Amino acid sequence: MGLIVQKYGGTSVADVDRVKVVAQRVIKNKEAGNDMVVVVSAPAGMTDELIELAHEITDEPPAREMDMLLATGEQHSIALLAMAICNSKHCAISLTGYQAGIRTDNVHSKARITEVQAERITKMLDEGNIVIVAGFQGSTDDDAITTLSRGGSDTSAVALASALEADVCEIYTDVDGVYTADPRIVPEAKKIDTISYEEMLEMASLGAKVLHSRAVEFAGKYNVPLHVRSSFNENQGTIVTKEGEAMEGVVVRGVTHDKNQAKMSIFGVPDRPGIAYSIFKALASAEINVDMIVQTVSKNEKADISFTVSKSDLRDALEIFKKVGENIGITDIAYDEDVAKVSVVGIGMKSHSGVAAEMFEVLAEEDINIQMISTSEIKISCVVKTEDTEKAVKAIHRKFIPS
Amino acid sequence: MGLIVQKYGGTSVADVDRVKVVAQRVIKNKEAGNDMVVVVSAPAGMTDELIELAHEITDEPPAREMDMLLATGEQHSIALLAMAICNSKHCAISLTGYQAGIRTDNVHSKARITEVQAERITKMLDEGNIVIVAGFQGSTDDDAITTLSRGGSDTSAVALASALEADVCEIYTDVDGVYTADPRIVPEAKKIDTISYEEMLEMASLGAKVLHSRAVEFAGKYNVPLHVRSSFNENQGTIVTKEGEAMEGVVVRGVTHDKNQAKMSIFGVPDRPGIAYSIFKALASAEINVDMIVQTVSKNEKADISFTVSKSDLRDALEIFKKVGENIGITDIAYDEDVAKVSVVGIGMKSHSGVAAEMFEVLAEEDINIQMISTSEIKISCVVKTEDTEKAVKAIHRKFIPS
Predict the structure, then answer these.
(1) Is there a contact between A132 and A95 (Cβ–Cβ < 8 Å)?
(2) Which CATH superfamily is domain B255-400 in?
(3) Any CB–CB contact under 8 A between B100 and chain A?
(4) A3-174 — its CATH code?
(5) Does the global pTM surpass 0.80?
(6) Looking only at Cα atoms, what is the longest distance across chain B?
(7) Is A82 touching B (CB cutoff 8 A)?
């Protein structure tokens, strides 16, 4: 008994039959005495279809209009799910992101939630309704429709759970939870029962696709317990929660990989204060996330800087350097899309030294060249050639995860 | 030069290529120096597809959720059209019904516009934008999404034209204008150059599908000049305007037919004051429009009443009589879906007598039985068997419209 926020992804509402299955699951939870708020994504495939359609109209659809178009996907899902629930003796009301009070900044297509005005949902719950909310979307202060980054429905669910002080936020997906590695690559990978926000955040940022990293950040910040589980069965999934003492016993929680990476290098960067700022400021203004950054030792007061961006941002990043490069004095730019990032994550690393050395040893034994390295307190990432990804993940998993 | 509101129907935005054609037309008008507001419908077929999908979920989708679902259709169109226009040097902004300030009552699926708060559009026009608005939809005072009756995009356009004090409201369709009869039935039917609001209202109510009757009512009330024309060519279409003196010279402006009619008869209605009220009040409360009403002379203080409703309302009407019939004392109910309504319309009838007699004579010569008759100052309608429709329309057109 309590307030549960559930989020169902696109595969869970892909067709009429699946929508009915979700409706049954929601009703069961309601009949167990819970207040229910349900966040849904667009039906699987619809968002991609709409993007394709937009590109048939114009090569560069304005982001505002793209958001207007894409927002129809979730609106489609919420209406159908509400209808399916209303077909029982229960009453459901669907709300768009705007109607649900999800306010965002005005960065169309990559908007961030600034506030959730939850009074309307609270009132509807008090009246006994099941409330269905469109994920992935919100609205600006002047009522323009925005969409969050892809996968943003997770973030919508967590933001609502936080604003409503829900007891748990259940993220339904097509797998049983978060795994120690991608089971398609590592068949012996195991489901993780409990993981800290910090670890999950690293795993999500590093390529574990089961949760959107912004959602984990939000959950951690507002201490919303997440439960990642399958919509196809009743199995207990993975609980994402605050770091507990028992967690430190595990050195490496999981191994991730991310092939959606590109490496950029800029040469001849003048070695004086403020230059790095002006470079990365330009990328940040364009909402391009830069990940690993390596600067070579300066020669003749010039340095070379390498960094990674997601493949989808590469073209934009190159454009920016064409513009700002000359002013800064950059002599040359190179890029490589044939790279992947392989990482290990674990809170236990805080109190265990030597994990990095062991990881490098494993890769050396497999004859895999490491192009870039970056570390934090709880993760180590290496950039390798794309073709080495699977071999690297398998070997690292074998080394660190007890079978 | 001025402010033009244009409305394009579903066939005009059915696919990417047609959307681009509409964009070109809008841009041409803008470049001629006009401020442009463009209202669009959902792509042809999409609304029907969504309705079908909803019925796969449940036999009785709640009207609120149906509106939520259907509203995605126009939202789809406005985003694509805005993108197509932005692909030129012009700037377009799309607005949902809610965003455009179209407020309605809360009768979901048959909402009526109560107010247009046009400040936002005015501001956008002042900034040089072309404004694209989703037709057929609005929102209630508490921000629920509503849809108007089918064909309601016409009404959206007229309401906006009125609120913005537009110079003209152009309704684009797939025919050249309003015809003296349906050209598929009467090949010699002619395009009408000018028609009064009153005549157009009767024609629309009586089955001429080119304009939605609520839109004509609105246009007449606020004196918004309408121009009904084809989106496939530049021909002058039909102007709908205030009654002028010259108009009375034409006795019959047009002949219409409507096969979407059902006849209901209720028997044994007690002949006392207030009974008709309680019958038709029950239908009105369910938003069922009753058209022709005929009451037989009373026998034994009981009367029989026949009336017509649209075929789509027949089931609901029968349900209502099952409920209220007993209280009132109705002994039996009958209905007939195999009927059609054939009508002649013309302001000139006000000053010409004998049109009804001539119409009955024509039908008698064709051996067509008249089941019900209803007249107003400017129209005469007869209910006939469905199979007689074409024959009746042809004969009446031949009689009244000069070739």
Answers:
(1) yes
(2) VC0802-like (3.30.2130.10)
(3) no
(4) 3.40.1160.10
(5) yes
(6) 77
(7) yes
